[in-house]
Amino acid sequence: MTLLKLLNLVKWPKALLFTIIVLSIASAVISLALPILTRDLIDAFTNNSASSKDVITYIVIFAINGLAGGTSFYLIKLLGSKIMFGLRETIFSNIIKLPVSYYDRTETGVVISRMTDDVETINDFITEKLTNLISQVIIIVGSITMLFILDWKLTVLIFIAIPIILVVIIPIGNLTYKIAMEKQDTLANFTGLLNRVLSEIRLVKVYNAEKKELSNANKSLKDLYNLSLKEAKIQSIVSPVVTSTLIFVLFSVIGYGVYRISIGTLTAGTFVAIIFYLVQAVTPMASLSAFFTEFKKTEGATKKLYDLYLEEKERLLENKQNNDNEYIEQSLGDIEFKNVSFAYNEEEIVLKNVNFKIPAQKITAIVGPSGSGKSTIFYLLERLYQVSEGEITFHNVNINEYPLHEWRKQIGYVMQESSLMGGTIEENLVYGIDNNYTEADLHRIAKISNSEEFIAKFKDKYQTLVGERGVKLSGGQKQRISIGRALFRDPKILLLDEATSSLDSESEVYVQEAINNLIKDRTTLIIAHRLSTVKNADQIIFLDNGVITGIGTHDELMSSHEKYSYFVQTQSFD
Ligand SMILES: Nc1ncnc2c1ncn2[C@@H]1O[C@H](COP(=O)(O)OP(=O)(O)OP(=O)(O)O)[C@@H](O)[C@H]1O
After folding, report:
1. What is this structure's pTM?
2. Among candidates 472, 475, 451, 478, which has minimal Cα distance to 462?
3. 112 C-alpha vs ligand 1 centroid, how far in Å?
4. Same domain flag for 200 and 120
5. How does pLDDT run across 277-303, given as a tens digit for each residue?
6. Which residues' Cβ are closer than 6 Å to ligand 1?
7. Same domain, 236 and 347
8. Helices (DSSP H) in 263-317: which residue ranges?
């Protein structure tokens, strides 16, 4: 059962669970005793033999029952919250370890919905159904048994209703389940759409796509609307059938009971006890009838969550202790691509048998037409994807042999779009730094990344909020913050995706200065878009449609590589 497998991932609060079970059994037993006590009290009153002790005992037991009910209600909610916490923590720690390739094929909104809606469904099932199961079964079985003992003729009358209710409930239960599953999927899709649209709201607006997105949203919303209506229609059939049957039974029982009292074959106390048991048994019965539908629905949610948990994670090798790690501590080391081929999917091979060396502490620039595979080389170095063939080595050791986090710690990656996280400037500068840093470090990094001046102009200085993905900063400011972020890590290897978007010349100078500070004494690989960069590089790699067609200095390639010299003349190289 997937639910058990999933729940096994969470540390079960066993003592709490045990207390809940004991309390709910105790409460069920008291509930079963109450009608008998009521009967005795009523009959005692009828015979004028009731003592005040009887009344007090009755009230005390009633109060204990209420107290046990209240306490177990709280404890069940506590159990649910603990399980939700555990599940969300476990699943989140897993989804954050899933490789980038997983997110290439999955909409993030769907993952969000798993973490929110599906976990909630499981919580509802546990707190409202599973934990009450034992006490409900005890109450139903106990009440029916007591009914038979008290008066079998009346009980038979009650049982006539059960097949009528079952005939309606069972087939409809399956239908409700199907609708619930459809609803879960539609909701996940809608969350996906919401996430996509809201994260790119500027794009939506400048391309006048509001109407289009609204009509996309409309489809999901209509589906949700129709499914809710379907659910309502089903309920509008089930509910009156069940209620009328129950009322019919109740009236018959009351009529027959009153008749029996009038002819003296039933005491008033026993009659009240029967009604008491009847009411007591009906509520858990209704809840139990929905148990299997809810269970199936929860199994659906559980399976999706468990599948997410089973998805293959990035290979971390965190506990690996061997000599290879020592290499990573040394600063000097060449990186080599040896016969590397790579494809994101079967349709297209992006890198084809690529061989080159990135010498330590030198600048290597990669140039080539759009889509030739330049960024892919960075992703492979960051181990965001695994090579399909060949290997990438550092100190002649396959980079996969290094623990992933240790390896990534050596690399500073300044992305072209200068991705920032929502939060403050300080949080962005120190992003991913787990050791302590001082105020002085912060100022030093801001200074060498040329950010100090513009940060000082903000009212909140380092605590200025940058907005989602840094929307409140200018392009040049964002770039300088990302350069600062890379500097903070003091990486040995630097991956720099030079921005194609042109900054104004003043900003450009600031960014260039920051880059020069960043590059110093590091093994640098730049995706180059400027003539000054390629001229400064120790070697240039020309990548064309996934194949390296030339390696050399700017002057060498200008004289020997026709496409390179043409490229230099025609691209936006200044
Ligand atoms: N996540 C992905 N899934 C599938 N294909 C991808 C993915 N990322 C890139 N590609 C494809 O891989 C090829 C190389 O892309 P890459 O981004 O490495 O090129 P590039 O040289 O950096 O281009 P540009 O200069 O335009 O940024 C392209 O054909 C692209 O469509």
Report:
1. 0.76
2. 451
3. 26
4. yes
5. 888 887 787 777 778 778 877 888 888
6. 104, 344-345, 350, 368, 370-376
7. no
8. 268-289, 291-310
